[in-house]
Design goal:
Blueprint: E1 2-12, E2 15-26, E3 30-34, H1 41-48, E4 56-61, E5 64-65, H2 70-74, E6 77-80, H3 92-102, H4 109-118, H5 134-148, E7 152-156, H6 164-179, E8 183-188, E9 199-202
Parallel strand pairs: 3-8, 3-9, 6-7, 7-8
Antiparallel strand pairs: 1-2, 1-4, 4-5
């Protein structure tokens, strides 16, 4: 599996966010998108997720233009933006079940419980998300990404609101995903010292 971004350009108003951006992502590899707030990181990930069209450029997935068959692409990809995509009136368990159903994905009860335990969510699993903290909701959203088990993860500032233990747990999950042949594009405004062996894309 290969994702190729070729000559991608995007503007916002009178400002150019990025121009002639090119990179490729293969199995077991990670791309780290860095830049200050407003540099275009979220816009780039939305374009790669197929949620927004670029001004110019081409994106191909397994040799085919992304926009020619979005359904096929979406079946291989999990996207998490700044919003967690949770229904506040539902519990973490109910949200996970609904998100897995929407993604046409399956996970055993044992695997769901293991991920809840890994992220210290077990005691909150049956509380409505509207009663949870921002960090707890972020962990539920990240748990959904892991449980969907899609090969390509697109994660926009995934570690926002996480405590140190959850940050480390998600780092481990990312490494396990890559080791199993998965692919990740991850944006951050932080430094890259925790992301050895990643391809770095800097937006400014």
């Amino acid at each position: 599996m290969t994702l190729v971004i070729k000559n991608l350009s995007q503007s916002k108003g009178q400002s150019t966010l990025f121009r002639h951006l090119c990179f490729a992502l293969e199995k077991g590899r990670q791309v780290l998108v860095q830049g200050a707030n407003g540099a275009g990181k979220s816009t780039l990930l939305k374009i790669i997720a197929g949620l927004q069209s670029p001004d110019k450029g081409e994106i191909t997935w397994q040799g085919h233009p992304l926009f020619s068959d979005k359904a096929q692409y979406f079946s291989h990809m999990s996207y998490l933006g700044h919003q967690n995509g949770l229904k506040r009136s539902l519990t973490p368990r109910e949200n996970i079940e609904e998100l897995l159903c929407l993604a046409n994905a399956n996970a055993t009860c044992e695997k769901i419980e293991r991920v809840f335990e890994d992220f210290a969510l077990t005691e909150h699993a049956n509380q409505r998300c509207e009663t949870l903290s921002a960090g707890e909701c972020r962990k539920v959203a990240l748990a959904a990404v892991i449980l969907k088990n899609k090969p390509l993860w697109l994660l926009d500032e995934p570690f926002n609101s996480l405590d140190k233990a959850s940050y480390q747990r998600m780092q481990t999950s990312c490494q396990q995903h890559l080791a199993s042949g998965g692919m990740i594009i991850l944006s951050t405004h932080q430094g890259s010292h925790h992301y050895d062996n990643s391809q770095i894309i800097c937006l400014s």
